[in-house]
Amino acid sequence: MTRQYRIASVPGDGIGPEVIAAGLEVLDAVASRDGGFSLAVDHYDWGSDRYRKHGAFMPADALAWLRTADAIYFGAVGDPNIPDHITLWGLRLPICQGLDQYANVRPTRILPGVTSPLRDAGPGDLDWMIIRENSEGEYAGQGGRTHRGLPEEVATETSIFTRRGVERIMRFAFETARSRPRRHLTVVTKSNAQRHGMVFWDEIAALVSHDYKDVTWDKELVDAMTMRMVRRPRSLDTVVATNLHADILSDLAAALAGSLGIAPTGNIDPERRSPSMFEPIHGSAFDITGKGIANPVGTFWTGAMMLEHLGEKAAADLLMRAVEQVCAAGILSPDLGGSATTQAVTKAVVEAVRGMNR
Ligand SMILES: NC(=O)c1ccc[n+]([C@@H]2O[C@H](COP(=O)([O-])OP(=O)(O)OC[C@H]3O[C@@H](n4cnc5c(N)ncnc54)[C@H](O)[C@@H]3O)[C@@H](O)[C@H]2O)c1
């Protein structure tokens, strides 16, 4: 009996459908090569086109549909004619928050064949696991606007830090650090300027650290962190940061590893009460939509994360080895300085998967 997993595919907007189609093709090849499992994919056409037609990005019972899946494979959301806060709060954030996928996991490393903009950094010199708090903080959605259009107009955007929310992400970060060879965690903060929420964040990090004596840890202000990522990439391993800080730092991390197009992420519910959601970290990339040149590597890598989350570690490793082999062979899309199309990279990875030893 093969193991079967139900995948909810939500390609979304822009290059989302292009990279998700490529990702599903590669995952299908991995499942065939492995032989031990199969993927049953449900396709959901949620996104900006649906919003234009029906006034909502997804149906009212969308979360109930998603809960029937073992994992969600997500592309991107964003439309040139709809404000970004409407698209983000219409699709991606209601899924992450509604399913309480509170740990956003963002691995970054320089793949073989990929050149980092950092002069001296090659594979092995930059190998990070960024953990982003994904349920509260600056993106909790608390705030409002009053006296619209008047000189007295006021807008507030309140960051929310709860003991439960901070403690669970710190525990997840220390656990992640413990599972990696270097066993080192960097806690990113801004407690010099933000003396309530961020001091609370630091205090809970210190408290949780007592349960992880085998993990070394340090603390870095977010501004200094940008410098450290560029100047001393080898000094970092696992990193934990708030929703906003990690959002920004992980784009920098992706660029330092070669391109936004290769970076993956998992929106994880560590307690597995709900399905977790896997997506490339990039957005809908209007500038290259429809040109056939979107880099699918971030979507492949997040596909490997999804397989690992489902318990298919051998298949996940096989997929990553295939991706690395293709990158090392110089089959790279334009964002990485190559000339390969999405289709050419996908075909090369499928062939590498077929030829790979288990
Ligand atoms: N998770 C998400 O759904 C998500 C994330 C970020 C941005 N967005 C949305 O996407 C839209 C565009 O945002 P943006 O331009 O700031 O970010 P973006 O990630 O879409 O693009 C930034 C730049 O990186 C390039 N790029 C991104 N992915 C690439 C890939 N796979 N291959 C090659 N090049 C790639 C783009 O061409 C662009 O030049 C906005 O509506 C934004 O709100 C959505």
Automatic annotation (TrEMBL):
Q: Which reaction does it catalyse?
A: (2R,3S)-tartrate + NAD(+) = 2-hydroxy-3-oxosuccinate + NADH + H(+); (R)-malate + NAD(+) = pyruvate + CO2 + NADH; tartrate + NAD(+) = 2-hydroxy-3-oxosuccinate + NADH + H(+); (2R,3R)-tartrate + NAD(+) = 2-hydroxy-3-oxosuccinate + NADH + H(+)
Which keywords are on file for this protein?
Answer: Manganese, Metal-binding, NAD, Oxidoreductase
Q: State its cofactor.
A: Mn(2+); K(+); Mg(2+)
Q: Pfam families annotated for this entry?
A: Iso_dh
- InterPro entries from the entry? ICDH/IPMDH, IsoCit/isopropylmalate_DH_CS, IsoPropMal-DH-like_dom, TTC_DH
Q: Does the keyword Iron apply?
A: no
Q: What pathway is this protein a component of?
A: Carbohydrate acid metabolism; tartrate degradation; 2-hydroxy-3-oxosuccinate from L-tartrate: step 1/1; Carbohydrate acid metabolism; tartrate degradation; 2-hydroxy-3-oxosuccinate from meso-tartrate: step 1/1; Carbohydrate acid metabolism; tartrate degradation; D-glycerate from L-tartrate: step 1/1
- What is the role of the protein in this entry? Has multiple catalytic activities. Apart from catalyzing the oxidation of (+)-tartrate to oxaloglycolate, also converts meso-tartrate to D-glycerate and catalyzes the oxidative decarboxylation of D-malate to pyruvate.
Name of the protein described by the UniProt record:
D-malate dehydrogenase [decarboxylating]
Query: Which species is this UniProt entry from?
Result: Rhodopila globiformis
